Model the fold of this input.
Amino acid sequence: MIADYYSHHYDEVLGFVSKRMMYAEGAEDIVQNVFMRLLRTDKMITPITLPCLVYTTARNLLIDYWRHRRSVEEYEHFIVQLGVSDDLDVASVYSAAEITEILERGIARLTDHQRTIYRMNVYEGKKVSEISETLHLTYKSVENRLGSARKEIRQYMKRMLA
Done:
C-alpha cells in the first residue's frame, strides 16, 4: 500500500516539500525519508490515514530541516562575530575534546533525573517514549525534565563558550 502510494504520489509530495524548502536541493531526500519512516513504523496504516500521515511526516521533517538550518546559521554567525576567517587560528577555536569536557561539566550540574534522561536521549539516541518506558515515568514527566535539562545545558554552554 505504501509503495503504491509512493509510486503514484511521489511528484505531488516532492512538490509539497520543494515549495516549502524554497529550493529543491534536499527535497528528494526528505520525501524519501518520509516513506522510509512509514515503511519502518509499526503503527497500523489504512488507505484513509496514509495521505494524512504522509503530509504530517513531511511537515515534521521540514520543521526539523529548518530548525537545523537555523542552528547552523546561528553557529556561522557566532563564528563570524568571533572574527574567525577561513585560515583558522588553532588557538582561537575550541577543540572537540574541550567542548566535550565543557559539556560534561554542564551535564554534571543537572539533577540526577535530568542527567539520566539527558544522557539516554543524547548519547543513546532514545526517544522520550522509550525513556519513559525504561525509567517507568510518565511521558510528560520525561518530556519536561528533558526540556529543562536541554535549556540548562544550552545556557551553560553559551556562558562557557562566550
